[in-house]
Amino acid sequence: MNDVPLRFDDVLSSRIREAQQDLAARWLGRLEDLVSVETRSIFPSQDLLDHIPVVISEIAQFLSAPDENIAANTFVTTKARELGILRHQQGASAHQLLREYELLRNILFTFILEETERLTLNPSASEVIRFMKRVDHAIGILTIVTVDTFIQTYTDRIDDQTRRLEGFHRMVSHELRQPLGVLLAASRVLRIADITADPQQSDRAVTAIEKNATRLTELIATITRLAQTRAIAGPSEPGTQRVSIATVATEAARQIRDMADARGVDMRISPELPHVRIDVGQLELMLTNLLSNAIKYSDQSKPARFVEVAPLQDRCGFQVRDNGVGMTDDQRRNVFTPFYRGHPEAADGTGLGLTIVRDCAQSLGASVTVDGAVGEGTTFTVTLPSDRCDD
After folding, report:
1. How many domains, in total, are found in the chain?
2. Could you give the CA distance from residue 137 to residue 135 in angstroms, rounded to a whole number?
3. Do 155 and 241 lie in a common domain?
4. Which of 70, 181, 246, 354 is most buried as measured by Cβ atoms within 10 A of its Cβ?
5. The domain boundary residue, chosen from 159, 183, 198
């Protein structure tokens, strides 16, 4: 009789291990019903999808070893942490995670009862209850690890956003202070009683007011666009549609055509750019800022000045290349920093255009890098996730 509990544990554990694929399929099917999406949307890679039955097998191993502590199983806890990070990136909630593990618990409980009735082991009620308590303990440990990781990831993101917001506020305050100071000084000059006796001084004051009022208007508009970009950046997928990058680049070029003509810059859009599924608004915002940045820093000493948008040869994405003034190593390192202007003497600007490009790229799950040298021009490379390209 003393062998009965061990035999029951061993047989049921073995049955769970043998049925790991079927149990995983049951769970994934219930998840699809729960979140109303395809399984591939929850587990985007085959590796993540395949580890579900393996985790179930590890649970079975724990059930057959009374002295084993599943919390010490680094494979299981690592997979649980991966799931916590993944579900955070996908915009799930902690409640949804708890529900997902509750589904797995119920599926295992149902399977145990089904197998107990099917097999001729005749275990006592206490043996079945003890076995199911170990299942409950295993699922509980996995739930704690996954949810703790999920919450920690969520907290880290909030802390990072808070730090960025505080820094952003400090930089905005700094940038607004300078033109406001000029406006205040110019207005005081105009109040001087004998200002009419010096028309040149009056004209300089009016010019300063106009220039800095324009700069403030541009700065506020840019900050508004940046805030909108950051507001939609996050784990949720932006609204997407299928579009040719060439079409969007052509529209972006049309909007700044006068600026390019004034500086004698030829804008070239390659017809070979790929079709992508993307948030068109963010893509256009990226291209507009990259093109206008290239035009601003065109090299007026060169007889032919250009900026071109070209496809990548082996990846999904595009490049924006120019033959402008280029950048030093230090300028390239800081080019995406808010309000940083590597060539303040070359053109007016807020120093936020490339920050917007970076934030749009992050929101789209893309990366953006910069290359080039002084006098040779600059190349910005935007690499999109491979599944965004139709090809």
Report:
1. 2
2. 5
3. no
4. 354
5. 159
Mean pLDDT of 204-222: 74
| Contact indicator for 343, 375 with CB cutoff of 8 Å | no
Residue 123: what are its φ and ψ, rounded to 5°?
-75, 155
Q: Examine residue 192 and state whether it is found in any structural domain, yes or no.
A: no
For 128-174, what is each residue's pLDDT tens digit? 888 899 999 999 999 999 999 999 998 988 887 777 667 666 656 65
Query: Residues 228-287: pLDDT tens digits?
Result: 555 544 444 445 788 899 999 998 898 888 888 888 999 999 999 999 988 887 888 889
Do 153 and 282 fall within a single domain? no
**CATH number of the domain where residue 121 is located:** 1.10.490.10
- Do 294 and 152 sit in the same domain of this protein? no
Q: CA neighbours within 13 Å on the CB side: how many for 334?
A: 12
Structural domain including 334 reads 237-391
pLDDT tens-digit series, residues 279-331: 887 888 889 889 988 998 898 899 999 999 999 988 899 999 999 988 888 88
pLDDT at position 255 is 80
Strands 265-269 and 305-311, by their bridges, are parallel
Q: Which of 124, 159, 194 is the last residue of a domain?
A: 159
- Within 10 angstroms of residue 195's Cβ, the number of other Cβ atoms is 13
Residue 287 located in a structural domain: yes
Residues whose CB is less than 8 angstroms from the CB of residue 130 and which lie 6 or more positions away in sequence, other chains included: 5
Contacts of 368 (CB under 8 A, 6+ apart): 286, 336, 357, 358, 361, 380, 381, 382, 383
Indicate whether 79 belongs to any domain: yes
Three-state SS string over 89-158 comes to HCCCCHHHHHHHHHHHHHHHHHHHHHHHHHCCCCCCHHHHHHHHHHHHHHHHHHHHHHHHHHHHHHHHHH
